[in-house]
Amino acid sequence: MAPPSGPTILGVDVLWVATLLAAVAAFAVLLAVYAATTVRDPMAKRVKALNERREQLKAGITASTSKRRAKLVQRSEATDRIRNILSSLKVLQESQVKTAQTKLLQAGIRRKEFAVAVIFGRLVLPIVIGGPVLYLVYGTTMFADWSPMKAYGLVAITIILSYKFPDLYLKNKITKRSNAIRKGLPDALDLLVICAEAGLTVDAAFGRVARELGKAYPELGEEFSLTAIELGFLTDRRQAFDNLANRINLDAIRGVVTTMIQTEKYGTPLASALRVLSAEFRNERMMRAEEKAARLPAIMTIPLICFILPVLFIVILGPAACSINDSFINR
Question: Which residue has the higher pLDDT, 88 or 218?
């Protein structure tokens, strides 16, 4: 292999490394341009599906054609089998199903039949995942050098985590979705105030806010769109607001729902009540930001000590140490 003709660092050609980094940077720029030019509206597909469902509900069409009925039967066949298995094992309780359905709605999953799959996952995953781990620990010599307590801890932790995995997955999705909705709630209330002062009805105001905020906050836009649709066809408007509170696991949404129900019941001004709620939510958001800013110095202490200060010491004391070393060598 021929020696490099240009300048080198640790035996590596600097020009070759610079060329490689320039190629990587050019590829990253092209990728960023492609991602910026091909951005899609996340609300378009959801709003289209919700509008189609609204037209079906208005017309009283749930599964009129035989093709759609066959599709529905095909989709629920696996769920029916799982339900029959759980019922035969006497482990399927109606309260568990309702709780799982509520968590699925809060996680943004609209199909309630998945609640049976969640309960089935709690039953099957400890066997599917914990069984092989149990065999590897006690049936083979792979973990023979481990102590009995350590081996038992591995098996127990595996079984417990596999049992709690569906709940942990749903909880993670609920937390992320609730945080995304919380960020856009003050802006949504401001738009609701503007729509109410402009003379729009409540369902029209919810639909307008969903269209305006759908791109920035798709989760909140989806929930407001669904609420506007329910306000349009449900006989009891309070039920639509209760459904909104059940679908979102936020105390702020429950406060908004309570306010909307009271304005519907007693005829109080909607704009003034929503304006007060919006101011409270903005103050709460500012307090959370200040709390995070106050925690930042304590959080940055460990990275500062472990990564920044050693490099700083090397940069400052390195030349002095080299000079001292050279002076001792010359003597």
Answer: 218
Residue linked to tokens 């599709």: 71
Which is more confidently placed, 102 or 70?
A: 102
Beta bridge partners of 9: 12
Average pLDDT over residues 114-124: 81
| Residue 71, pLDDT score | 44
Q: What is the pTM of this model?
A: 0.63
Q: How far apart are CA 213 and CA 221, in angstroms?
A: 6
Q: Cβ distance 254 to 245 under 8 Å?
A: yes
Nearest alpha carbon to residue 256 among 192, 176, 213, 174: 192
Q: How far apart are CA 261 and CA 101, in angstroms?
A: 24
DSSP state of 4: P
Q: Output the CA angle 145-151-157, nearest 5 degrees.
A: 150
Are the C-beta atoms of residues 196 and 278 closer than 8 Å to each other? no
